[in-house]
Specification:
The structure is a single chain. With 380 residues, the chain is α+β, with helices and mostly antiparallel strands. It folds into 3 domains: 7-118, Butyryl-Coa Dehydrogenase, subunit A, domain 1, CATH 1.10.540.10; 121-228, Butyryl-CoA Dehydrogenase, subunit A, domain 2, CATH 2.40.110.10; 231-377, Butyryl-CoA Dehydrogenase, subunit A, domain 3 (Up-down Bundle). The protein has helices spanning 7-32, 38-47, 65-78, 80-99, 102-114, 230-266, 268-274, 277-306, 312-337, 339-342, 347-355, 365-377, and strands at 120-123, 139-143, 146-157, 164-170, 180-185, 192-197, 208-219, 223-224. Strands 1-4-5-8 form a 4-stranded mixed beta sheet. Helix 1 (7-32) packs antiparallel against helix 2, helix 3 (65-78) crosses helix 6 (230-266) and helix 4 (80-99) packs antiparallel against helix 6. The longest helix has 37 residues, at 230-266. The protein is globular and about 80 Å long.
């Protein structure tokens, strides 16, 4: 098992690091004020970072899953709000590349990857279907050559700015998860509307909205994958997405670690005089230990996906370990940095707010533990 990135992987990581330095970091405070990062998206689209695993024919980088998590970690360390948009766009592009028809790929991939579409969005969660994705209530009924969608989605990243939205809907209420089908919807379709914007604790530059579908007519050509394959599409997306969320969290955690180390170094003489220096250094070491261990789990999950191996359990392990390690790091950073971190404009305060949701979205830590336990019970 080899996690050392090859030359192609390292090139993508270097691209992301340079983009983070040149574009995301200078605009991070502005984005955190609630401004959607259009300039960042345009810059990342020019570099191919909105389609890291997509074929170069469509402007992508044809990267591995390991390259993807390396890039996401770099971007998230600079601006998590931008990175959420990037990650979901990559996820939608990946699903179209994997399950889409040639026509769907031609219609959407180049626009997603270039940034012509500001984003892609993934509409699975509903008022009564968060952790239990199979219980969703949005319906799609067949009418001739079309489908008619009715239902509501909640907590949809970039739902108001996306050029294409991947929507999961029930096409057969009697088949449980096997009765779910995926559809590609576009803005401007009659009956498709954006609801309220969530007023969030963190990720303030990332748009999170509700979506409503009222008799939205979708042609059968916009169905992604086979009839009843939607749950497979969703779970495939989430396995990869959980690697991405883990990488996002680790990126924020390392930023907290670096900022805390810088602050402790600057006040080392005072802490030594107070007799608190060793305690602070031990806690800094704990931050690094947890982050490094979790990062290895993220890389393992990405590597397994690159090998075409089943990695649902490993993706769950990666997400829960990474997000909890990063939350520990950011919380500890707040405590160690004290007044230096409590200022609303501080980098530590920003990552502390941004990282908290990582334990909730794309499957809570509790759900990840359930996935892990069930996999163990099944002998996987």
């Amino acid at each position: 098992m080899q996690f050392e990135p090859g030359a192609a992987d390292q090139h993508i990581a270097d691209l992301a690091r340079a983009a983070a330095r040149d574009h995301l970091t200078p605009r991070a405070a502005r984005t955190d004020a609630g401004i959607f990062p259009r300039e960042n998206i345009a810059a990342l689209g020019q570099l191919g970072l909105l389609g890291i695993k997509i074929d170069p024919t469509f402007g992508g980088l044809d990267g591995s899953n390991l390259a993807y998590v390396l890039a996401i970690r770099e971007l998230a360390g600079a601006c998590a709000s931008t990175t959420v948009t990037v990650a979901v766009t990559n996820m939608v592009a990946d699903m179209i590349a994997r399950f889409g028809t040639d026509e769907q790929k031609q219609r959407h991939l180049a626009k997603l990857v270039s940034g012509e579409y500001l984003a892609g969005s993934f509409a699975l969660s509903e008022p009564s279907a968060g952790s239990d994705a199979a219980s969703l209530q949005t319906r799609a009924e067949r009418r001739g050559d079309d489908w008619v969608l009715n239902g509501n989605k909640l907590w949809i990243t970039s739902g108001d700015v996306a050029g294409v939205t991947l929507v999961m809907a029930k096409t057969d209420a009697n088949k449980g998860s096997r009765g779910i089908t995926a559809f590609l919807t576009e803005p401007g379709m009659p009956g498709f509307s954006v609801g309220r914007h969530e007023d969030k604790l963190g990720l303030l530059g990332s748009s999170t909205v509700s979506l409503a579908f009222e008799d939205v007519v979708v042609p059968d050509s916009a169905r992604l994958g086979a009839l009843g394959q939607g749950f497979e599409v969703a779970m495939t997306a989430l396995d990869g997405g959980r690697c991405g969320i883990g990488a996002q969290a680790i990126g924020m955690g390392y930023t907290a670690l670096r900022e805390t180390s810088r602050i402790l170094t600057a006040r080392a003489a005072r802490d030594k005089a107070l007799g608190t220096e060793q305690n602070a250094l031990f806690r800094l070491a704990d931050m690094a230990l947890r982050l490094d261990a979790a990062w290895l789990l993220v890389q393992r999950a990405a590597w397994l996906r690159d090998q075409g191996k089943k990695m649902t359990k490993e993706a769950a392990m990666a997400k829960v370990a990474a997000t909890e390690a990063a939350n520990f790091a950011c919380q500890t950073a707040m405590q160690l940095a004290g007044p230096d971190a409590f200022d609303a404009g501080s980098t530590i305060a920003r990552v502390w707010r941004d990282v908290r949701v990582s334990r909730i979205y794309e499957g809570t830590s509790e759900i990840q533990r359930l996935v892990i336990a069930r996999s163990l019970a099944a002998g996987l």
